[in-house]
Structure formats: structure tokens, C-alpha cells
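Let us practice reading a record.
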Amino acid sequence: MASATVHEPRVAGFLPEGTEGEKVARLMKAEEQQLQHVFKLIESGQHRQAAQYFIDEVAVGPGAWEAFPEQLRSVLVANAPTFLDESRDDRPIDVDDLRTSPVPLLISVGTESPELEILAAKELVRLLPAARVETLDGAGHIPHRTHPDLYAAMLTSFINGSPSPTDRTPGRSPHEPKASTVPISPTSSPATSWW
């Protein structure tokens, strides 16, 4: 493997300590309740209802489901059983493995992402200071759908070892972490990845 990337990693296994940890725990509990509803819908064969609830109530926001093209909605419905299987995989991210890996790591987060995902990314950055960090202005939890050109440019520049398309700092090394912090949107809601 030549490089690795993660956009808004799951929190399991590296909760921050102190106040942030308590906040993350509260957000995770709220997310778990929402996800249990999604899981019950999937288990009962109501895949379309599960996908719509997930998009509107957990990941993106009210009305997003109707704004998605039918082709995308069909993919989400078809992937519902896979999402359930992946969600049951509770193996934590092995931070020690990542810390000692010679493989360059990119951690990305959107400025409009759910608060839980932003906090998880910030904690992983704290634990892995050698990782390259990218903040996608205006993007949320699904930048590959909402900002595909910017997301692809960011991934391509990382893979090629080029300067970041989102970082306008002259002379910054492509693998040097950004100094800026990831902003937290007060209107964000917790989410996880569906696709």
C-alpha cells in the first residue's frame, strides 16, 4: 500500500479524554439511538424507509432524500443490508498501527460535517500528528457527492505527493499537517457513512 486516506473516521477506539470525551460520548449515544431505528427498518426489510431516515435524520438533514437523484436513492436502498453489516463491525481503528506505519495518511473533514465526525477527525489528528490533514470548505459528510471535483483533486494531490488544492500556504510540504483547526458547525447532527 502506497498511501491511505480516511474521511471523517468512526470514533470507536479513540475517544478523547476530558470534556471533549464526555461530549463525544453524548453524541455517540444520540447517534446510536438513531442508528438502532435504521437497523430495525433494514432488518424488517424496509430498506427504502431506512435509507430515507438515515439521510434526512442522521447524515445530511431534512429534505435531503428528496433532493437526491433517484439513481442515488436506488443505490442507497440496495446498499442498506451492507450498511447494516458494516455497522456491526465494531473493531476500533488501531491508532498504534497507524502511528508506526510508513504509509502516508490523509485525514479529511468537511466544515459542514456533523459535529461527531469533526470531533473524531480532530482526535485522530491529535493522535497521528504526522498525518496530512485536509479541511474541505463547504463540504459535509459526503464530499464525493457534494464537492466531487474538490474531493478528487485533494485525493489526487495526496496520492501524487503534490501540494494540497485546499491549502493556499506557500511552501507547505504536501505531507505537513495544517496548522488550522477544524471548525465545528453548531447546527450539525451526528452521522455515520452509508456508502
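A brief commentary: The CA atoms of residues 163 and 172 lie 7 Å apart.
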